[in-house]
């Protein structure tokens, strides 16, 4: 009986507007996100996935209105994909081997007086958000986001760098293009190559391509990088405050992450031991007593 009630409630949340209203929402969503499917079988499947995600969004937001959550969900460009598909195709971060950093590459920051809040967007250290598409290139976007901030501090000019350059050219360093990569090996490529092109010179294509780096488009360079102690948020806070945006690894496996719209994301089911996605921490702060990280995600 309880199971039946849950099913009926979900059906009401999704279909309560009427079937025609739901159809209209589906058609508008497809137009907005330029969705065209190959055949009727795929249309039926994608519609079912989209409708399931709509139910999740409506149910969660109703609970958020009742004070049960501090963040809201929405139907974005991923709404017709299952969580498994998103994790396989988009969340391409490869886990670093701790043995490679046994000597420790981070020098402890102590005695610093850290500000209560930081937002590097206000200082012009953060480039606009891009859509990585169906390519597991989060590692490239995250690492270059950190480098963009450092280049802005050094030169005074914020120049978006080319993730496609890393996707196409860093396979010999151990990365796998759209099938995933490592933040550390992204930096190692830039160091070995003595530079990376700008996004304008080497634009993003959402797929693997032939390496075409040219020194003519060089807009960033790197001589060294540091690995922070895993799980040490105090160290991360100190570096974000004193250095700038930092490339980090997170758990992005949950549907609530995929459908996030706004607010302070805090999912009880998020296990920090399961890491699969790279993002950029661009600041931190406190909202009504709740500490948060300000994150740029592709």
From TrEMBL:
One of its GO terms (biological process) is proteolysis. InterPro entries: Papain-like_cys_pep_sf, Pept_cys_AS, Pept_his_AS, Peptidase_C1A, Peptidase_C1A_C, Peptidase_C1A_papain-like, Prot_inhib_I29. Pfam families: Inhibitor_I29 (PF08246), Peptidase_C1 (PF00112). GO terms for molecular function: cysteine-type peptidase activity. Residues 1-16 form the signal peptide. Residues 26-86 form the Cathepsin propeptide inhibitor domain. CDD domains: Peptidase_C1A. Residues 114-298 form the Peptidase C1A papain C-terminal domain. Keywords: Disulfide bond, Hydrolase, Protease, Signal, Thiol protease, Zymogen. Belongs to the peptidase C1 family. This is Cathepsin S, ortholog 1.
């Amino acid at each position: 009986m309880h199971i039946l009630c849950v099913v009926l409630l979900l059906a009401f949340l999704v279909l309560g507007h009427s079937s025609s209203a739901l159809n209209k929402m589906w058609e508008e969503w497809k137009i907005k996100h330029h969705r065209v499917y190959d055949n009727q079988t795929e249309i039926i499947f994608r519609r079912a996935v989209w409708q399931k995600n709509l139910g999740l969004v409506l149910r969660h937001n109703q609970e958020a209105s009742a004070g049960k959550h501090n963040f809201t969900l929405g139907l974005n460009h991923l709404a017709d994909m299952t969580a498994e598909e998103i994790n396989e195709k988009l969340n391409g971060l490869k886990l670093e081997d701790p043995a490679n950093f046994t000597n420790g590459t981070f020098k402890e920051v102590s005695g610093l007086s850290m500000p209560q809040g930081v937002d590097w967007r206000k200082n012009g250290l953060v480039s606009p958000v891009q859509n990585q598409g169906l390519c597991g290139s989060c590692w490239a976007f995250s690492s270059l986001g950190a480098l963009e901030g450092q280049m802005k501090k050094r030169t005074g000019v914020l120049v978006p760098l080319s993730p496609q350059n890393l996707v196409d050219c860093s396979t010999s360093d151990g990365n796998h293009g759209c099938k995933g990569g490592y933040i550390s090996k992204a930096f190692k490529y830039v160091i070995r190559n003595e530079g990376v092109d700008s996004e304008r010179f080497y634009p993003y294509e959402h797929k693997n391509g032939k390496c075409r780096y040219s020194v003519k488009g060089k807009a960033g360079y790197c001589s060294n990088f540091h690995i922070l102690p895993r799980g040490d948020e105090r160290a991360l806070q100190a570096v974000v405050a004193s250095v700038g945006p930092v490339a980090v690894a997170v758990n992005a496996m949950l549907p609530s992450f995929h459908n996030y719209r706004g607010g302070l994301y805090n999912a009880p089911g998020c296990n920090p031991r399961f890491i699969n996605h790279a993002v950029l921490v661009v600041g931190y702060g406190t909202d009504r007593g709740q500490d948060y990280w300000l994150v740029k995600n592709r």
